[in-house]
Design brief:
Blueprint lengths: L3 H22 L4 H5 L9 H20 L18 H21 L2 H4 L2 E6 L4 E6 H25 L9 H4 L6
Helix pairs in contact: 1-4, 1-6, 3-4, 3-6
Amino acid sequence: MITPSYVRTMAAYNAEMNRRLYANANNLTEAERRQDRAGFWHSIHGTLVHLLWGDFQWMSRFDGWDKPATAIKDSDHFVEDYAELCAKRITADANITAWANKVDDAWLDVDLTWFSGAAQREVSAPKRFLVTHFFNHQTHHRGQVHAMLTAAGEKTDDTDMFLVLPGMVP
């Protein structure tokens, strides 16, 4: 069962892994970050941008953030400037952590209904399920970035949650 503790743990993991991946991406040139590396969102930059877009999309539903005006098919262009992307990532992670600290069982027990641009219809689902999807989406695409960074020659650290957040192991 997804609990408030799970939400806080995943928010902390998300923020730390983003910090680590951006530290590695900062070692690359702009051209290296934008090089097509055969990922779904093509490049390291494009995948990092899509991740941020997804976070904004879900947090607009979960916590009232501004919904991105960019469509999903163009989500890898949500933020073009790398310095702006880095700043928005830091702010987003802090805001996700603040949201996670407010989540309680009563909030998780309610279904969420929204219009899905991807599905082109109204969708309803339990928030517990959607929060799982939210964090899974982050982990999935960070894994792609991790692989691209490794292929680019960056030495990346461990990604195992129990090693990344040893003080948070229940």
